[in-house]
């Protein structure tokens, strides 16, 4: 069971990630936000003993396409087949502007990413920040293992552990 810290994030709890490799999909549209998100995600995976590969896409809207391509290539572990990756983490940021483009990007990136994850039963940690200002993004992204990048890695690790529990209970 997890506890929330004073900032509303999940307190760091190390989960054993030994023997697991993860795909980190980064959309570094805002370089400083992306750097803070990746710092937290890598710190969390390193603390768990997990390994990872990183890929970059231009923006948040391309994250679902990258995840879908990994699934189509047979790289993601699914209930039907063992792949190279046990799960994936999405890292990006969308900052509200003056037009409805923000809503389109946020809604579609999250909808299609979750659609791919749900259809393939892919453990997925989501740290696509959706904020009004750059300052809000930095507050959420920063903090190492207490930031949103680490929260997403930790969520993915927990989903992998849960899938393993379900698998063992079903056999």
Could you characterize what this model shows?
Helices cover 46% and strands 17% of the residues. It is of the alpha/beta class and 171 residues long. A four-stranded parallel sheet has the order 2-1-3-4, with helices on both faces. The longest helix is centred in the C-terminal third of the chain and has 23 residues, at 148-170. It is globular.
Can you tell me the overall shape? globular
Low-confidence runs: none
Structural class by helix and strand composition? alpha/beta
Distance between the termini: 25 Å
Strand and helix order? EHEHEHEHH
Total of helices:
5
Main-sheet strand order equals 2-1-3-4
Radius of gyration from the alpha-carbon trace, in angstroms = 15 Å
Number of strands: 4
Fraction of helical residues: 40-55%
Percentage of β-strand residues: 15-25%
Taking all residues together, what is the mean pLDDT? Answer: 91
Distinctive features:
alpha/beta, 171 residues, 17% strand
Describe the structure in brief.
With 171 residues, this protein is an alpha/beta fold.
What is the topology?
Layout: E1 21-26, H1 31-48, E2 51-56, H2 63-72, E3 87-95, H3 101-120, E4 124-131, H4 134-141, H5 148-170
């Amino acid at each position: 069971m997890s506890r929330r810290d004073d900032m509303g994030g999940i307190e760091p709890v190390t989960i054993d990630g030994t023997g697991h490799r993860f795909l980190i999909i980064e959309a570094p549209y805002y370089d400083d936000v992306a750097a803070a998100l990746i710092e937290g995600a890598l710190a969390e995976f390193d603390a768990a003993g997990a390994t990872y590969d990183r890929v970059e896409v231009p923006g948040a809207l391309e994250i679902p396409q990258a995840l879908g391509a990994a699934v189509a290539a047979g790289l993601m572990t699914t209930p039907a087949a063992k792949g190279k990756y046990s799960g994936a983490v999405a890292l990006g940021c969308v900052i509200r502007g003056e037009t409805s483009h923000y809503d389109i990007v946020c809604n579609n990136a999250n909808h299609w990413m979750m659609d791919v994850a749900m259809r393939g039963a892919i453990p997925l940690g989501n740290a696509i920040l959706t904020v009004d200002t750059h300052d809000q993004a930095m507050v959420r992204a920063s903090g190492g293992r207490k930031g949103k990048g680490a929260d997403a890695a930790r969520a993915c690790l927990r989903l992998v552990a849960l899938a393993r529990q379900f698998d063992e209970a079903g056999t």
